[in-house]
UniProtKB/TrEMBL annotation:
Oxidoreductase is among the record's keywords: no
The organism's taxonomic lineage, starting at the top: Bacteria, Bacillati, Bacillota, Bacilli, Bacillales
GO cellular component labels: plasma membrane
Entry's localization field: Cell membrane
Source domain of life: Bacteria
A Pfam match: TrkH
Coiled-coil portions: none
Keyword terms, alphabetized: Cell membrane, Ion transport, Membrane, Potassium, Potassium transport, Transmembrane, Transmembrane helix, Transport
Transmembrane annotation, as ranges: 12-31, 74-98, 129-150, 191-216, 228-247, 293-325, 346-367, 373-393, 405-425
GO MF, one annotated term: potassium:chloride symporter activity
Membrane disposition: Multi-pass membrane protein
Protein name in the entry: Trk family potassium uptake protein
Main location: membrane
């Protein structure tokens, strides 16, 4: 039995692979050449930054634009790209370039990393992931460069364009503007808003959905997964924008002083970025408490499966909502887009949600004893870390070392997924050979 704990199953390889990348990034960021002070960055701060970058979160304890040198920023950018696409995807890239055969073990790892139900067409999907990522990031970098060349030297505009295109597409939220401003200076700018929102949404939809959207003109069909993702994403974006617009319309700390176009741009950008990206065009700490709590709920839901975002995922939330509606209507089956959901899918959605709630609440309670801050800000930061969002009410910079380590664990867990981590930590059980008699109890 002991040998089962040391068997390198796909979930365990993913956990160890991400841990190795984070450790390597931490050591590189600790080098004096990585920061502008010329001193060695403390290990806890380097670990936090590397974890945030690899887990494409965006929470920072040091100002990325002012504290880190170009070398340090490139290390962070590399961690974002590898962490966003997944280290197995990057390894497959090298295998394809050098025409190395993709083994069965590699295909199993890719299946686990991309949250696929089978290995069929997995290598073809990875090729599409690499092509789509390169094309989208390059196009966005060009558009950003064209816009920012009016605000800064050409070389800096190119560098900023590439960095922010990669960061936003991978839903990381790191920025180079300094003073933790993110995109607040461009809240009224149509081009920056449109490009940034497109990057965030395309990265958060998932590569399966992107692939089907690209092929839609030829196939004229979408899978059930894509239909659920697109419908739920659209509903959440619209609902989030309306709520933020209403709650922050007169708030002088955020959107009260903006004109109508600024309020609309700010509402939609924050609704989109809140669920996964970590970028912000308004002051998150200045939001009203009602808005901050609503943002927590959006962060908890997160992006979609197989994407660069975190959270419990839009499909999980859709199944939960559908199950509640079906129960209220007295129906035995959950039907979405004329397809019946199996009990296994419903149980999995409930399991993921309950585990996430338990983990977030437990960690928030622990942090409330180690950190000197309000419970709302602690809950906000904890949810942001778990959902790999990266938004902050300002607590991150003041965290104790214990708090930083705890949030590193949350970001790591959120990026890999609760079930993947659970499968990695425990040996897989065999198939049950019998069933217990059915029991009856009163519920509700």
């Amino acid at each position: 039995m002991l040998s089962q704990w040391f068997k390198l199953t796909p979930p365990r390889i993913l956990v160890l692979g991400f841990a190795a990348i984070i450790l390597t990034g931490s050591l590189l960021l600790m080098m004096p050449q990585a920061n502008t002070t010329g001193e060695r960055l403390p290990f806890v701060d380097a670990l936090f930054t590397a974890t945030s970058a690899t887990c494409v979160t965006g929470l920072v304890v040091r100002d990325t634009g002012l504290y880190f040198t170009t070398f340090g920023q490139i290390v962070i950018l590399t961690l974002i790209q590898v962490g966003g696409l997944g280290f197995m995807t990057m390894a497959t890239l090298f295998s394809l370039v050098f025409k190395r055969r993709i083994s069965l073990r590699d295909r199993l790892l890719l299946q686990e990393a991309m949250k696929q139900n089978s290995m069929e067409g997995i290598v073809r999907l990875i090729r599409k992931v690499l092509v789509y990522s390169l094309v989208i990031e390059a196009s966005a970098a060009l558009l950003f460069t064209i816009r920012w060349v009016f605000d800064m030297p050409f070389g800096q505009a190119v560098y900023y364009g590439v960095f922010h295109a990669v960061s936003l597409f991978n839903n990381a939220g790191f920025d180079l503007f300094g003073e933790y401003r993110s995109l607040m200076g461009y809240v009224n700018d149509p081009l920056v808003n449109i490009v940034a929102m497109f990057l965030i949404v395309s990265g958060g939809l998932g590569f399966i959905v992107l692939s089907e959207l690209v092929d839609f003109r030829r196939t004229r069909k979408l899978s059930l997964h894509s239909k659920i993702v697109l419908s739920m994403t659209s509903a959440l974006i619209l609902a989030g924008a309306v709520v933020i617009f209403v709650f922050e319309f007169t708030n002088v700390k955020t959107m009260g002083s903006l004109d109508w176009s600024g309020k609309i741009w700010g509402s939609f950008f924050q609704s989109i970025a809140t669920r996964t990206a970590g970028a912000n065009s308004v002051d998150i700490g200045g939001l009203r408490q009602a808005s901050q709590f609503f943002v927590i709920m959006l962060m908890f839901i997160g992006a979609s499966p197989g994407s660069t975002g975190g959270g419990i995922k839009t499909t999980t939330f859709m199944v939960l909502v559908g199950a509640v509606i079906s129960m209220i209507r007295g129906r035995h089956d959950l039907v979405l887009f004329r397809y019946r959901m199996t009990q296994e899918r419903i149980f999995k959605a409930v399991t993921i949600t309950m585990l996430a709630l338990f983990l977030i609440i437990s960690v928030a309670m622990v942090l409330s004893t180690t950190e000197d801050a309000s419970f709302l800000s602690i809950l906000f930061e904890t949810t942001s870390a778990f959902a790999t969002v990266g938004l902050s009410m300002g607590l991150t910079m003041d965290l104790t070392d214990i708090g930083k380590v705890i949030l590193c664990f949350m970001m790591f867990t959120g990026r890999l997924g609760l079930l993947t981590l659970a499968y990695a930590l425990g040996p897989k059980k065999g198939k049950e050979l019998y069933r217990h008699p059915e029991g009856k109890m009163i519920i509700g």
